[in-house]
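Thread amino acids onto this structure.
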């Protein structure tokens, strides 16, 4: 049986939700030495997460990452997120694919960040999930709206991870569980996207996409949109 599209839901945003978002952002970062060094900090703040289930979810992922050798952690991360579009960390891809509509969605995200006083880094697209979660931790109200807007991507990523019993699944369960209960139309949209995949519109993207989007899209990224076909897993040395 395939996993449910929607996990447990909290009836409202709890006071510790920004902390959950901050921890989730750390756990979903590429596990370079800097990110792995933050795991002790994650463990130290977890007692402040009041929901016992979310606390256990986040603790399990932190312990899993701590149990791996750094090279293995990096290789598993790349295999999980960078080699398949079904598990991309770039949230707008799930709804828009490589289309002009995605360019507009990315531009709108940048505007939201800047309106809240946060300049998104040029090295990463603004829909990269760890970046979105960091923003939600720093600016809870607009960050919550961004997560709701990107909810289709969140839910489809959660489902794809759950289908393979991936160790990162509990992080997505904690994040998705902090969002409002979805309506029937939303659930139908998720099912359709899960069945059909995102739209494809490769030809003619550059003439119509906003210049700011094209600049962001051409900037170097630590986690680019993954290729359509799997490629051999890198050793992590080039990261």
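Threaded sequence (239 positions):
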């Amino acid at each position: 049986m395939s996993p449910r599209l929607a996990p447990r839901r909290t009836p409202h945003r709890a006071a510790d939700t920004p902390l959950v978002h901050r921890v989730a952002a750390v756990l979903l970062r590429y596990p370079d030495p800097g990110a792995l060094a933050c795991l002790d900090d994650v463990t130290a703040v977890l007692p402040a997460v009041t929901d016992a289930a979310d606390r256990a979810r986040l603790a399990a992922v932190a312990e899993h990452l701590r149990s791996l050798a750094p090279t293995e952690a990096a290789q598993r991360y790349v295999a999980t997120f960078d080699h398949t579009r079904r598990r991309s960390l770039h949230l707008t891809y799930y709804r828009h694919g490589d289309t002009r509509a995605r360019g507009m969605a990315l531009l709108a995200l940048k505007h939201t960040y800047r309106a809240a006083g946060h300049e998104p880094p040029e090295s990463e697209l603004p829909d990269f999930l760890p970046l979105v979660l960091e923003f939600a931790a720093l600016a809870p109200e607009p960050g919550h709206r961004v997560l709701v807007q990107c909810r289709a991507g969140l839910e489809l990523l959660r489902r794809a991870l759950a289908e393979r019993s991936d160790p990162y699944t509990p992080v997505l369960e904690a994040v998705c569980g902090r969002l409002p209960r979805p309506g029937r139309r939303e659930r139908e949209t998720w099912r359709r996207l899960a069945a059909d995949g995102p739209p494809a519109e490769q030809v003619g993207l550059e003439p119509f996409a906003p210049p700011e989007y094209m600049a962001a899209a051409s900037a170097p990224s630590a986690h680019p949109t993954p290729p359509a076909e799997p490629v051999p897993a890198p050793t992590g040395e080039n990261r």
